[in-house]
Give the backbone structure.
Amino acid sequence: MDGPVTFWLDFWNILTLRSGYNATLVILGTSSLGMASGVVGTFAVLRRRALMADALGHATLPGVVGGFLLSLIFGATGPEILPLLIGGACSGLLGIWLVQFLVRHPRIREDAAIGLVLSTFFGLGIVLLSVVQTTVSTQTAGLDSYIYGQASTMTKLDVLTLASLSLLVVLTSILLRNPFGQVCFDADFAATTGWPVDRIDLLMMGLVAGVCVIGIPAVGLMLVVALLIVPCAAARLWSTRLIDVLMISGLFGGISGWFGAALSSSLPNLPTGPIIVLVAGFIFGFSLIFAPRRGILSSQWDSYCRNQRIAEDHALEHFIDHDDSVANDGLSALFSVRGWSVRKINRLMRRLRAKDFVQCSSSVWSLTPSGRSRGLTIQRNHRLWTQYLTSHADIAANHVDWSVDQVEHVLSDDLVAQLEDQLRLGSEP
Amino acid sequence: MNLIPALDLFPLLASVLVLVGCTMLGNFLVLRRQSLMGDALSHTVLPGVVGAYLVFGSRDPFGLFIGALVAGLLTVTSIEALRRYGRIESNAAMGVVFSIAFAVGVVLIRVGHTDHVDLDPNCVLYGQLELLVWFDAPSSFRDVGFTDVYHAMPSSIWSLLIMVLLSALFVLFCFKELRLASFDPGLSRTLGFSSRAINMVLMLLVSVATVASFEAVGSVLVIAALLVPSSTARLFTDRLKSQILVSILVAFFCAVSGYLMSTWIPLLWQGESLKASGTITVVSGIVFGCSLLFSPRYGYWMQRSRTRQLADQVAIEDVVVLLHKSHRTAVNFPWSTIDPRILALATKRGFLQSPIAGQYFLTNAGQNLALEVQGRRSRWLNYLVTEVGLAPDHAPGTAEHLEHLGDDLLQKSVDTMDDPSHPSGECP
């Protein structure tokens, strides 16, 4: 009885940064990391390098372990953050460079190159790890946190570093969004208009790699790819403009960091990294279903409406072909070509009557003037398109009808005018 | 150090089975540009296994197998659904699905308190090849044949055997369909084979392979086993059948040598043995790297030497033509501007002779070569202006590049132009 209430109170306190120094630090750190990775990840996804980030994350393992070994040789007593991060960055960048190098070979495609680098580097990391575990007796438990992430041990210095780096990354991305966007959407065009594509690309990958490396202590190298990809994938469902996607993606990343860290510290025994990823995943799922225009609900609704409109158009066309009126019991014969059920026909007629396209008097259905003019327009579109396909697109006359049936509903007024012009010109000589 | 049957026979056997079985399927993944599906599937094994453990409440291998298989199928279908309904690019869809699934797995482990079972993410990632111990084994490999091997065999060997058998049967009996669906999905649909059904079966088998292998070798080695031997084989051959055979050989070699490395390398510093799954991956990476450098067909070494030979040939032809144009007199010829190596090479091949040091003359062979190259140039020039439609003042530059190519290319296109059965304007 008491449990849920205290949990929610606890959660609320942590969420509003009122429960202690440590939790506040972790929340600030993870949310600034989430924001930076959301913004930078957008460019990685748009450049179709989503899984390059995965390769980068896995490729840091040998560097992390190697950095640890080296730091032991130079007299460290346990895992220290700096050598591990430098080692990770070096081997991660080497991995990225190898992928780029392999892709240029005619027999190796990008997916295979990513898989090759990812697995080989990770294998090397495992070998080094087993060397460390069997030969060195000092504390190695900290190494595991680089694989799965350990955000709860952040210090003030870590958070300050994270926050300033994130600020830098976000500012760079927003200021340079124009060249970055150009390279993402059409690298060849960007090159022709004079942008230094290679250098821009390098800077972009450098930002991604930087976020990856600083994110690894917090969420782990297996999951850093999620922070880069998932917020952007969710943001793209809400907008198609680059600047909006950047903003929304940064916002989603920040929210996931904030809520994830708060959740994991208000529940016992939950690792921070995976929870952050799950919150991001939840935002993604929500967007996938409910986003306006591109979400599943709304796009299904759109196609439902479109199908209904098309069915209405067909019905009107049949009426026109049948001299504008038909008896009530002749309806199913009229629509027999379409194979519609009686229920569907009834609903359709009700809708048409509501729109004032048909009227029913003494069990005879007939077109109203507005229905008649709409039907004639559609019929005209149908004939125009048929004419165009047979005379200009070289399609055999008996093949035309089916494709016309699908296109006639979506002809815009401009296109109709253009078709009329072309057909007139074509028939003159 | 000698190998001990009790400790080494089954791990060795398991690694060979994993690599060979996965490689057969991996060939098609690489061919169909779906390599990263293996990556995604190997990550989603974790939530499947942990979920099955939480549902069935035991470490029964069959239950875990079912759980991981369900997770694998869910992954494949949800990636496909995200691509279709969410209109998300396939790489991003894959990344979204498998990273979230992996996070679910890690959280489930902590929430379900399964830490005390040996079900931690480490063993899913790295595998536990070393735990395939064969109890009551003979003390030496010479006696292996005389004992009952099937007695007390580790259970994962059985699932690996079944996996290899299934993949082999699939590749053998559906080879034609697989090849068709991989190279030309459109044609395969026209001929009545559903390429989507074949794709689905392939994905199912890849999940089976991943699931059967992860317990023994971990998910990282699974990715390597799917991709590395088949990518290596692609560097040696263009034919699918020989690619599969080569990749199986490579896989076998990598498995055995990688396993041996894991016990032999630590002897250098008297340490304990390394993670075999890691060394096998590294060895296969090295094998791939060596093939990339030295393969006779697509290796960098061969390609560089081939380019070099071509460059030499072009340079010699240029020198010979230049000399021919200056009326074979070598008096005012700017010899210092020409690479002496090329001159020496041309002399060695008999196109030039040098009676006085620093002075060169064309031989008869050199004269013929010069005439031939010039003839080729004028034919290309003619062709470029009359048939390709280049402006006359733009054509010489292009012709200068093309003159070094044998004009069998030109000859072929001229032949087809004369041939009335080919409509003109179409590419020969």
In short: The first strand of chain A starts at residue 325 and ends at 327. Chain A has a mean pLDDT of 84.
